[in-house]
Amino acid sequence: MNYLERAELHGQNTDNLKSGGTEDTIIPVDSVEKLKDLLSDGMSDEQRNNFIDSTPTTSLKEGQSVSLHNLTNHIYGTGQLSRSDQEYLKKILPVKANLKSSANLYLNKDMIIGPSAAPTVLNYDTITFDGGSLLVLSTALKLNANNIVVKSNGPNPYHIGILGTQGTAGSTGSPGGSHPTAQNGHNSSAPSPGICTGASAPGNGGNGITGYSGGIGYPGHVGLASLPANIVVNNYSSSTGLPLIIHTQSGAGGDGGTGGTGGPGQNAGKGGNGCDSGCEGTDGATGGTGGTGGTGGVGGTGGNGVDGQVISITFPAAEKANLQLTSAPALPGKGGSGGQGGAAGAAGAGGSGGKHSSNGSVGSPGGPGAQGNPGQSGTITGKPGSFVPNYV
Amino acid sequence: MQRIEPCDLPDSSEGWPYGTFITEIPTFQQARELLGPSNYEIRNQKSKYYFDILPSKARNRLRLSKHDQAEEYMFANGAIENIDPAGAKRHLPLHVKVIKYKTFKIDRGTVLDVTSSVDYWPGLDAKEELYTYVYIEKLIVEAEAKLIVHGNVFVLNCDEIVFEGESDESKSWDFEIRILGTHHPAYGRIRNFRAINGKNGLNGLKGSDASEIKSTPSIFGPIIEECSESDLNGENGTDGSEGEHGTHGQNGGMSMLADLRIRKLSNFGKGRLRIFGQASAGYTGGNGGDGGNGGNGGKPVVNPKTKEYGAQGKGGNGGVGGNGGHGGNGGLSSNIFIEIPKGYVECLELDSQDSKGGKGGEKGEGGLHGASDFLEKSIQERANSGKPGRNGRSRPGPAIMILSNAFEPATSV
């Protein structure tokens, strides 16, 4: 089936395509079989079996992920659906798919699809790479190209990238809260009018306590997987001798969030005032020592990388030497930086002295809080999706 | 300023040298001779009336009666045995400013402020009681001239006060002597420090917004993750804290004893020499701090399946405003004695004003309750305000007593 027949099958305007126009259509998908037709038509049984054999199972759990795994194997392979898969389908259908068609796609800059877009079918007669790449991010892809021409390479080390999406970084932890100012020292008062003799000593200002620790940085999110792709190329032409490079890398883990800033150390209390009777007085008391700033929060844990999905490629056997398949692992996210230590609590002011007496000394300020420890990196590296090539 | 060493003090008030000086008088006995009247009959009359009008309750509470007894000894005829020696010691030596001139003229509309200052004696406590002794043999004044003293124990000794020039008929007086309170607040057992405005309360924290419901990429396109109802709701804001109360205002400065000795008035019409007395007003109380605003409620998110929003978080309560501090009371007043021959009494206009109470501090406003109006606009109300501080009490003005003749009873005004 050529690109015009495929376009006509889905109701696109072939006259427009023949005259050099483009067609961009949203196709309603109300059954799994329709999606299968869109994404995996033309795959041989051998390709389907290879696809199933190569599908990663490491992240499978109960529920949604199992059903999606089974549905993927049904669409790209020969897997059967269980009752629970059918039930799950009812929850998500109908969906929509994108169909983009034209005679020529000329890429002198990157064309990006996704992340996390509706399943997409690219339907072209000829795709020419001349400094640009096709990047497909966490989106299921069916690519039909009657001809591919590579005129020049671009900044990316590949022409087609089947990629995941890095998990979002964790948010910064919440800052440590503040304490109200520590208790002021009690004032001394005249036991009887005009007399400070026998007056109790004023109290020193209360010392500040250590500020609250900053909150732990939020963990980085798990990467988003690269999704299955089915790439069908009928002819390859490289007048420049450049090979077609298809690359895959699933989503790396997001970095952990920075730990929250430690709370400020508690401000110290003021020293109590000395007795001041008008006729005589006593010295003011010393202000308290400010509290140490709170320790910064521990950085958040990095998110894990995630395994990529299978990429099926149909390519002319005569041009096998001109197809290069490359891949890279999806690294786990780094641990977040430790939060800054909280500010030192202020010294307490000295109490005022009474008549002919001295003011109390100002207390000492607290120290700044320690920086929080960095978070731990994620632990799981996502494997790149497997290529299942089929040379015809 | 020139200074007389205590060892060079004269034996009697007649012996003060001419000029403006500061000095210290080591004993109450010396002060009695150097500052008090020489006429013993006058001293007896002053003692007779000394405690008649003074507000003894308030003065006793502040132990001022001890001061009054020492002053009665120096300026009237009190007994030295009434003076508490230990307490008196704390006020000795007396710090005195002396102004003595043969003639001195206060020009029209000019103010002569004779107030002494602690700055003349480095290291002296800012609230030390100071004495000012003025002896001008011939004081010449023009219309609207004023002689002022703020809060010093004050002696004005004039052989003659001469009014020169034209009276301003729009004024009720030609020359005014103003006995006023100290520039600084009075001592108080409770209100020892300047009023402080209460701090505003801390604002509450905004509740966290609900996170967007996530979707997972799949071969079917993004699949919305299962979410519970609570995932759609914003968090509640936290409460603002209360505003602090303002502290109370200090009491106004006291007006001290004034002893005016005038032997002759020339060219003064009836009531044209005005004697005015008033202690300082009480100080304003501190304002209450405003309550902190409550944190706004976090925003909800829409359920992608039902297209309905979750609930917005409730706004935190605003903090209650702090109370204003009470205003300080007006300053206390001591006596004003006027020695003057009977024939000149009608030239006097006496004006004793109550000292004014300080204004109460303003109430702190209540904090705004946090908003919760993402879905439906609403009026943000406030928490309760604090209470305004009470105004301070006014205190009676000084008793002004005229001793018109050493051999006749004094008239109390």
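Residues 60 and 170 of chain B are 43 Å apart (CA to CA).
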